[in-house]
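Hi R.,

As promised on Friday, here is the backbone we talked about, encoded as structure tokens. Could you run it through your design pipeline when you get a chance and send me back a sequence?
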């Protein structure tokens, strides 16, 4: 009788962990299916990285009209590259429009996810002591949300204002004062370009310079926004711009083939940008990286080289010895006196859903499985963790393209894998150990040969020094998400 009941079509109960871009996507898709779900968000409102990050100069490095859900184009973007605040507003409006806010519980931190072998369900524990039951858990907790504090002696001795870029405090003084910025990723670059306009002095501390890809930035006029409202095809034309997609395919081809024409082309664009933009030969060489373009995450900027050539900006390549009450002491003994210190030192990119304790079959711990480094089958599922899915999980595609697009493709994959459960043909699904091991070996072998593994230090590298990324083309990823290998999965 139990078998007959199992084979009846059923509605699954879902819990989504995280209220950022991917969690909102999952909520909208589940509501469309009419399935029961709750989204738990530890913060007091949605938005994810676009809620947490509010630093001056924050913009997305994907064109605004390409950084939207495919089903929800947006006519109101103010600029070609949108600000963080605009993006946060877009997600809030979208969640409201699709009526998923009623399914979201804020201020609810998920502390544990425990698979119940007997009942074939997840028991999800919250920090407030509540326990909720679900057939499926989707971890949409994101990648970049656990901040990295720099390991610099004396950090607590600084007597001025000090702030991490992902924990911005509007009370921090930046106007008409001396500001030091530690960190040279996209965040550090954007903060420099913003604060150069208002600070009396900006010092950009760099361990290594970055390659800068030149991109356009411009405002959309009221007339253009009105045209977008009246004719969404104009938005589609931007989203589907052949030049934009050519740059995506060029970049993923460049990643895979370090000796290919595509990487040489990107290298030349960035080298020409540096050579033609920076007039002072000493500063130009100070800003020249000693690694291949793309080894670190490529920085998109239309104004960084202009900003660092202004008289109130200094680029400091001398290493930091320690922090003192009045500023930064360099290894050569010089003291850079500062009023404010900004830490643009990034995130712990290997945490994902952790520190949530996740226990799979027979109490198997995700922390143990993810030693020495996180892995997942096609970045979405893990053996022995049934009905547990990740959006933008370990070894997923990273680069200068839309993670919304990536998450949408991953959700399509998840929907297909879940179909037998909805049909009542199984109660649980997870990839086989063998399928995961085979995938991870192929992925790691390919990743070592990409430009990410060509000899620089970056947050792309895992604890073993292997790039924790998708090492094949964008089209390979799209095809893999569209066509799951069901033989790799064990349905029970």
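Update: got your reply. Pasting your designed sequence below so it's all in one thread:
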């Amino acid at each position: 009788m139990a078998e007959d009941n199992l084979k009846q079509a059923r509605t699954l109960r879902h819990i989504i962990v995280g209220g950022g871009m991917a969690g909102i996507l999952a909520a909208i898709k589940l509501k469309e299916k009419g399935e029961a779900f709750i989204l738990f968000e530890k913060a007091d409102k949605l938005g994810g990285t676009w809620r947490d990050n509010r630093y001056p100069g924050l913009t997305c490095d994907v064109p605004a009209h390409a950084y939207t859900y495919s089903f929800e184009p947006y006519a109101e973007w103010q600029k070609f590259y949108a600000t963080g605040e605009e993006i946060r507003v877009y997600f809030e409006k979208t969640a409201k429009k699709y009526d998923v806010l009623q399914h979201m519980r804020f201020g609810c931190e998920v502390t544990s996810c425990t698979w119940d072998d007997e009942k074939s369900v997840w028991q999800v524990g919250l920090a407030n002591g509540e326990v909720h039951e679900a057939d499926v858990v989707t971890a949409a907790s994101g990648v970049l949300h656990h901040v990295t504090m720099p390991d610099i002696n004396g950090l607590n001795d600084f007597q001025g204002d000090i702030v991490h870029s992902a924990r911005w405090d509007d009370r921090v003084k930046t106007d008409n004062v001396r500001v030091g910025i530690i960190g040279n990723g996209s965040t550090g670059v954007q903060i420099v370009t913003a604060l150069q306009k208002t600070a009396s002095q900006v010092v950009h501390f760099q361990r290594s310079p970055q390659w800068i890809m030149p991109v356009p930035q411009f405002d959309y006029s009221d007339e253009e926004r009105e045209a977008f409202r009246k004719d969404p095809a104009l938005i589609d034309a931007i989203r589907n711009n052949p030049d934009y997609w050519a740059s995506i395919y060029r970049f993923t081809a460049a990643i895979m083939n370090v000796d290919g024409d595509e990487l040489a082309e990107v290298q030349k664009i960035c080298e020409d940008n540096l050579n033609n933009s920076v007039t002072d030969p000493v500063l130009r060489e100070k800003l020249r990286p000693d690694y291949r373009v793309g080894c670190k995450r490529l920085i998109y900027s239309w104004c960084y080289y202009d900003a660092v050539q202004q008289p109130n900006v200094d680029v400091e390549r001398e290493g930091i010895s320690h922090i003192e009450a009045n500023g930064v002491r360099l290894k050569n003994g010089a003291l850079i006196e500062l009023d404010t210190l900004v830490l643009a030192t990034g995130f712990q990119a290997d945490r994902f859903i952790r520190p949530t304790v996740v226990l799979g079959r027979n109490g198997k711990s995700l922390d143990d499985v993810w030693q020495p480094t996180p892995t997942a089958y096609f970045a979405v599922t893990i053996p022995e963790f049934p009905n547990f899915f990740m959006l933008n999980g370990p070894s997923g595609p990273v680069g200068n393209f839309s993670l919304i697009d990536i998450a949408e493709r991953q959700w399509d994959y998840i929907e297909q894998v879940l179909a037998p459960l909805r049909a009542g043909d199984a109660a649980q699904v997870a990839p086989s150990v063998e399928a995961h091991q085979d995938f991870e070996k192929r992925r790691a072998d390919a990743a070592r040969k990409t430009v990410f593994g060509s000899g620089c230090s970056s947050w792309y590298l895992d604890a073993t020094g292997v790039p924790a990324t998708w090492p094949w083309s964008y089209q390979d990823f799209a095809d893999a998400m569209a066509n799951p290998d069901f033989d790799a999965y064990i349905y029970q």
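One thing I noticed while checking it: The chain has two domains: 2-146+348-491, 155-343.

Thanks again,
M.
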